[in-house]
């Protein structure tokens, strides 16, 4: 394929990244594609569009050279089931992209793949979580058949980590290419480190209650928890909120716009992750690029924390988590080393300007 390549990123919940006034929640998968699109559009060889949910916006909008396309509503009703696929199909037909890129499994994933087969386009799926790579999505979700079709029918699978690449091969017998999460990494000016930070959506497997437990054990330290509500876990949010109010050293913030969140990582002493499992959380990169060491209970994708000295990993042992937090707070030389190594790691492995060249290479090979 010669000349201009039309690339359409499909990330249904990504609209608030473009318009912060939108209250729809998003996760790391949306941020990944948003970051790629922001950088790819700078290259005039590509026409970049981004397909999102219908949240009442105009049919077509423009944001910094990216065409934002409205598809279907996320309201849980019979119309979504019957008309969602039709609206998605019509939106794709109007845009007529050469390459479709999607991340985060959903019922729409199979529709994207089917569209690409019918109209002879290229479909790239990028994994967003460890459960995208085993068979959990296929077995536990009503739309699992759609996701299975997308995985096996895609022209290419991209993964966040080498571990995810291995699992895709083991569980789905598909070859994948690692394309790491990426940010614009800039030099960090010395900033006063003020608190211990936790950032994540309010879902059970993120285990926010463990962060509260840490706050109770380190009463002399300030803890900040940024935890957007989710529709399916309101009772958990209410419980955490109620317990958090009992702690004078903890501040719970429901939501921070994406463009403001970096300030919180910049001023954090440490970033704590308590999840049972993850993909490769963008919060790890946001911490590292701000020289904030990572303290993780159970998640260490590709062993990056230990291999690159970006903080401490606790092997799913709460006692280790407490000891590791104590060490990072008390051992100044060790803390400084982790802080510096974190930034070095982010710059070497997650710089958007480098990663986007890898994505361009992938796109051009498929487009030929």
Which helices and strands, and how do they pair?
Layout: E1 5-10, H1 15-18, H2 28-40, E2 46-52, E3 60-63, E4 66-70, H3 78-95, E5 99-103, H4 107-118, E6 122-126, H5 136-140, H6 144-153, E7 156-159, H7 162-172, E8 176-178, E9 195-199, H8 208-217, E10 223-226, H9 234-244, E11 250-253, H10 261-266, E12 268-273, H11 282-288, E13 294-296, H12 304-308, E14 311-313, H13 318-330, H14 332-349, H15 352-367
Parallel strand pairs: 1-2, 1-5, 2-4, 5-6, 6-7, 7-8, 9-10, 9-12, 10-11, 12-13, 13-14
Antiparallel strand pairs: 3-4
Helix pairs in contact: 2-15, 3-4, 4-6
Give a written overview of the molecule.
The protein is built from 15 helices and 14 strands. The longest helix has 18 residues, at 78-95. It is of the alpha/beta class. The protein has helices at 15-18, 28-40, 78-95, 107-118, 136-140, 144-153, 162-172, 208-217, 234-244, 261-266, 282-288, 304-308, 318-330, 332-349, 352-367, and strands at residues 5-10, 46-52, 60-63, 66-70, 99-103, 122-126, 156-159, 176-178, 195-199, 223-226, 250-253, 268-273, 294-296, 311-313. The strands form two sheets. Strands 3-4-2-1-5-6-7-8 form an eight-stranded mixed sheet, sandwiched between helices. Strands 11-10-9-12-13-14 form a six-stranded parallel sheet, sandwiched between helices.
